[in-house]
Amino acid sequence: MYVSTRGNFPETSAAEAIRLGMVPAGGLFVPAKLPSLPMEEILKLQGKPYQKIALKLISLFLPDFSTEEIKDCVDKAYNKTNFAHRSITPLFKMEDDMYFMELWHGPTAAFKDIALQMMPHLLSLSLKKAGVEREIAILVATSGDTGKAALEGFKNVPGIKIIVFYPHGGVSRVQELQMTTTDGSNTYVVAVRGNFDDCQNSVKDIFGDQQFKNVLKGKGFELSSANSINWGRLLPQIVYYFQAYLNLLQKQEIIPGQRINFVVPTGNFGNILAAWYAGRIGLPIGKLICASNENKVLTDFFRTGIYDRNREFKQTISPSMDILISSNLERFLFETSNRCAEKTDRFMAALKEDGCFEVDAEIKKVMGQNIEAGFATEEETLAAIKEVFAIADYLIDPHTAVGFKVYQDYRAATEDGAKTVICATASPFKFGSSVLRAIRPWDSARNKDDFVVLQELSKLSGTPIHSGLQDLEHRPVLHRSVCKINEIKDKVSQILAL
């Protein structure tokens, strides 16, 4: 069963939690009780393919889904058509104690694919279980990667329309073209004159607007979400942390029970929260290292206990982390406050009203036991890309580079020699201009077409361009809609012909 982080909704089934996306009155769904996976059960998964690991772990959280139903979802999501590498999330060994986990072998070259190839199938099943006959409208706010991954996962799915909102001028050209060239009879993409937080807050407000939802129902629509506020989106991300551990066991790089660290570049806190849940159910994790760019609201929070979004918003070369309101932090606050819905509700109300809140000493202590945090500047990010390429002849994107730099700082400060896995969250070709700028002089990318840059980067590194990005510049732009922040609800009404 699932409960609300704010205690404002009855216990409900996994299928209903996934169908709703978020708690109607505000709040996020979490398991009422976390499952447990003992080490002997983890060891039984050693040597198994990703699909078997996913089936085992996802089944723990979805008791109202049959094994056959979950297996069908897994098989549809994780196959050689969708993922270019049979391991789905392979490891690259950089040093004896450090590895990159490549999360970008899916159709859109970003880690979001791993969840968003799975989630549409979970949602479709959830709708059937609930006997829902209305058409589903999926609303997505994206800082760059979630949008395309969601579009790719949900396009042409019967009974579903998907509307993606992204910050106008706030994503890379490659990211924008990935979204605006998406085909499918049920896909809609809208640029918003604002930043990601504006998009996300507007979408959340729509979910909390009961009058608008009643209008939707009257017209035969029901809302749901593909953002990581939806448990069905977050759940599949837990799997690859276990996969990384089992991969290291298989290679005899660690022994059973040995703790390892994970470094996670994150803005919305979903990816690192999945790692935290992996640890809670039994994965031997030492430290989770939360890596931010110059929008370092999370770094400041973990260091001070004060979350304050009242600051300058910066557009960086790692745009998927350009976020000041980290939605999934709500689940973490609920868990670290000993599942106190009253405290979580108070924190979220203060964040909405004042733009900040402060946790008490007890919560801060629990946070520090689990998570370290750091950030990287733009210059440090570029230097990290250059360093990794110089040492290992290996390309990383700016988000992954933030993780590498933060890990370097952490290791220097703590002398922690534990085996560490850094999440490589996007293909370097997705941010080719920044990567080329880092490993060659600045004028190597200046005034060059983004897709010429990709060709140069491929030749320079001997690495093929990700298949999801090849010939992207020649595809027709099918979505050109732009709106203001206060027009988002009207845009939804227009698209759904309310």
Strand order of the largest sheet: 3-4-14-9-10-13
Percent of residues in beta strands = 15-25%
What low-confidence regions span 5 or more consecutive residues with pLDDT below 50?
A: none
Per CATH, which architecture of the domain at 91-105 and 237-463? Answer: 3-Layer(aba) Sandwich
Looking at CATH, which topology of the domain at 91-105 and 237-463 would you report? Answer: Rossmann fold
For the record, the CATH class of the domain at 91-105 and 237-463 is Alpha Beta
Largest β-sheet summary: 6 strands, mixed
Radius of gyration: 21 Å
Overall mean pLDDT: 94
Per DSSP E runs of 2 or more residues, the count of β-strands stands at: 15
Coarse morphology: globular
N-end to C-end Cα span: 34 Å
Derived from helix and strand composition plus strand pairing, the structural class reads: alpha/beta
Q: Helical region count? A: 21
Q: Helix share of residues?
A: 40-55%
